[in-house]
Amino acid sequence: MSRYRGPRLRVIRRLGELPGLTSKTPKKQNPPGQHGQNTAGRKRKLSQYSIRLKEKQRLRFHYGVTESQLLQYVRQARKSKGSTGEIVLQFLEMRLDSVIFRLGMAPTIAAARQLIGHGHIRLNDRKVTIPSYQCTQKDSISVSERKHSRHLVTESLERSRELPPHLSFSKDTLKGIVNNVVDREWIGLKVNELLIVEFYSRKV
Questions:
Q1: Which domain holds residue 84?
Q2: In sequence order, which residues have a C-beta less than 8 Å from that of residue 25 and are 6 or more positions away?
Q3: Residues 49, 42: contact at Cβ < 8 Å?
Q4: How far apart are CA 163 and CA 11, in angstroms?
Q5: Are residues 73 and 112 in the same domain?
Q6: How many distinct structural domains can be found in the chain?
Q7: CA-CA distance, 119 to 127, in Å (whole number)?
């Protein structure tokens, strides 16, 4: 499945708040579509499959990954020691585009991916164009010396956002450092990772 490029507020109305997808807030709160209007103010009973699917979709849309990418992360996590769900979240949170978003250098993860793709970001003083790069401890993330690049990042920094303890950032030099792997309590999305692991249990 390719990356989603459709209306983002419809996704927010269906799945709930996803800061990595968009910073906008929909005016309507009911789910999109004809049936969504009919269920406004009423809670519809969901099947167990539907509950797990929704949780998986929230993760996918927030981090902007494709179905095949997410499935690959789950398979890698199952081979690692520790909680599969937490490791999947760590894989997603330690992606370069996610780290740039958490540093405040971009308003959304999608915008962070665009910054990387257009060559505005440097990793360990080298130009990088791979949003899925897995950041590790002591990685240094900086902005290109181009005036346009620095303007884009400075504009995003005007929006205040809490910086998680596994990252540090200097507004003077526009440089961020990865101090450690993210802890579960500082994951950027409220999600039940166990439901996601259960959803993929037959595919991995």
A1: 8-91+188-199
A2: 12
A3: no
A4: 26
A5: no
A6: 2
A7: 7
